[in-house]
Design goal:
Helices cover about 35% and strands about 25% of the residues. The chain is an alpha/beta fold. It has a domain of about 60 residues. A six-stranded mixed sheet has the order 6-7-8-3-9-10, sandwiched between helices. The chain has a four-stranded antiparallel sheet with strand order 2-1-4-5, with helices on one face. It is globular, with a radius of gyration of 18 Å.
């Protein structure tokens, strides 16, 4: 299986604060990787670096074999391959659901309007939101907004989707519907990188778990080793808060 994302010696500082400290990762095509750790450990910053929303302090990121950090290829080209679903949805409030899903393919990929509509409807149907195409975001629940955000990301035909705590802004009863949609993406062969606090979900869906602590990768291992054969005391203490051990 070919590497889709390679991260080499990534460091990210905000002023004097070292948020990511010498991160190196290799993520294969089709892998589903959950990134776990305490709040403030650097998980979301790592995703923003992968999607080129943050300038690296040092290090390199390769996406689909190309160097994404030397400036020779535009960030927009790489973002066509990598979609991001934010915890705060980031939908356009002045557009209805269908328009939210069509605007990216038309503006960025110069897709024909009819083709963009067809793709948007297909993906809205996939996430169970086809009956809401005329609704504005303010008329939707948090779970519905997040499902629209996933459909919007899919309409760009990415090879990889990044999820930044996709359920953290949701009421508890809405969490399940979004997690079910993400689980369904597993069958599509996409590479998924998910920052989450949902331990059972990570356990069910992931092929691999990465635990970040204070900006460093403390563990990169299989789901079974992480949850069932955990020997690291720091991670054991973290997991015990979620009643998993």
């Amino acid at each position: 299986m070919a590497s889709f994302i390679e991260i080499k010696n990534l460091k990210k500082h905000f002023g004097d604060h070292n948020v990511l400290d010498d991160i190196s990762l290799d993520i294969k095509e089709g892998e589903i990787v959950s990134i776990i750790g305490s709040s403030g450990s650097g998980k979301s910053t790592l995703l923003r670096c992968i999607n080129l929303l943050e300038e690296l302090t040092s290090g390199e990121i390769y996406i689909d074999g190309d160097n994404a950090t030397n400036g020779k290829i535009s960030k927009e080209k790489f973002r066509e391959k990598i979609g991001m679903v934010f915890q705060s949805f980031n939908l356009f409030d002045n557009m209805n659901v269908l328009a939210n899903c069509m605007v990216g393919p038309i503006k960025v990929k110069h897709m024909d309007k009819n083709k963009a509509r067809e793709e948007a409807l297909k993906n809205l149907s996939l996430v169970g939101m086809e009956q809401y195409i005329k609704a504005r975001p303010k008329q939707l629940s948090g779970g519905q907004k997040q499902r629209v955000a996933i459909a919007r990301a899919l309409t760009m035909h990415p090879k990889c989707l990044l999820f930044d705590e996709p359920t953290s802004a949701l009421d508890p009863e809405m969490v399940g519907e979004v997690l079910d949609v993400i689980k369904s993406l597993k069958e599509m062969g996409l590479t998924l990188i998910i920052v989450t606090h949902e331990m059972q979900f990570a356990r069910d869906v992931s092929s691999r778990i990465i635990f970040i602590d204070e900006g460093k990768i403390l563990q990169d291992t299989s789901v079974e080793n992480f949850f069932l054969h955990q020997e690291n005391e720091r991670i054991k203490a973290f997991l015990q808060r979620f009643h998993q051990l």
